[in-house]
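User: Quick sanity check before I run a bigger batch. Here is a single chain. Can you write out its predicted 3D structure?
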Amino acid sequence: MKRLFVIAAAILLAFNVQGQSVTEGIKLINYDRFESAKNILTPLAANSAEANYYLGIAELGLEHTDIARSIFAKDPDNFYNQAGMARILFMEGKNQEAAALLNKIVDKAKKKDWEKYKVAADAITYTKGGDVQNAIDWYKAALAKHEDADIRIGLGDAFLKLQTGGGEAMDNFQKAVELGTNNSLAYSKIGSVWYDAHNYELALDAYNKAKEADANNPLPYRDLAQAYRSSGNYENSLKNIEEYLAKSDKSVNNQITYANTLFLAGKYPEALSKMEELLSQGTEKPYMYRIIAYTAYETKDYDKALKNIQIFFDKEQDSTKLITDDYMYAGKILLAKANEDTLKTASYINDASNYFQIALSKDTAADKTEIYRKIADGFKDAKEYATAGEWYGKIIAANPNAAPLDYFYWGYWNFYGEKYDVAAKAFNDMIATYPDEGSGYFWKARVAAAGDSEAKTGAAAPFFKEWINFQNKAGDYVHQEADLIMAYRYLAYYYYNQNNKAESMDWVNKILTQEPGDEWALSIKKHFDTVKK
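Assistant: Done. Predicted structure follows.
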């Protein structure tokens, strides 16, 4: 009897150890540590359908779809494997086949079979193409049989797939915390909901609670890095992404995330080096070429940038993974090449314009001001000043209440692009909209002076006087000395041409007050001193 008791205890201990190991593997999958999960689950998969299923999920996380398929195919009648195969069918766009397989699972669920509902719901929640409402209903059916933190987290994630599901998602993540068995993951989810709602203080609090609940969870470090990156705090972003990398499996995707952060932090050589290191190790993913192209552009290696953006477009077959910035960078790279290769300037500019139009079509923002600015800056960097001014004009056309600087650049770049009529309109409109902005008056005068470079017609005279009066009223000459000298010089020259000594010398003396040794002003003074009255 004693021997039988010892054997039974040993068998029970073995089952407990296996159960704990599967649980550990699931936790690692939830933390995106797929390689570590795979190491734990592989020796268990032969004797556990659940371990086999989660091993397949880990392989999917590693993007090893064919390996996952073979794992799920081992026992096609087991509901775990059927749920895994449904995920693959969703990934292949075979949504009806996947849905039929999941319905088959839940239709066979018995009174206490909560697991069937959960894995079927998970297949929809963590892939694309399924009916989210089915996932929600199945999670609720599972909860009716078994209250569980992991089910609550899955239900929260399902609600997040609905446009108005944020509140329900938060409720379920908080209930998961109350259950207390997976708090680090739940707090990570709560932090992301608060972050998406722009409540950064509560997001930060939740991420810190996630770290406290499990110091080995890399997700809050990743999410904090994203939060700091979005706010422009790249120092803290890098600090957290390095912590994330240290706690993660250092997978290719983890290291690409690190390289992305290096790029956004302006550490272009480091980002480029990391991507090229991964490529040299035989690892290749299309979006690695994206970062190489971006960083090469930022370091002014335009040939390398062009080569790699073309490789990226060729290799990325899934158009849904192409983002607005891909087309923006393609356009900017081509504009940079237009500046280098003058024989192909027109062709490069035409191709760049096409990419910018694609970027515009992909940009979902109702207010296009930001993307218009980026396009304008691309043309400005390529010294296509009139086109840069044209894009700033689009900002004003779409939003007459645009910032004063947008009005200014509309006129400024048209001025340098020698589109003086457009520049004049821009500065007139700027004065009408922002009468307290002195630069509008000054540049209105400069535009008029551009057509009267020898100051013979005096076209700019009333406008320079208007600007000087504005400055006198404002009482602020800070940073204006060079502009004042320019205005004084034009007016002095105009009245010199009119042989009006009194007026000309009035402006000459103003120049000499600012610059006593100004040779041009002294020459005008000498001229009038030698002319008989």
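The mean pLDDT is 91.

User: Great, the batch can go ahead then.
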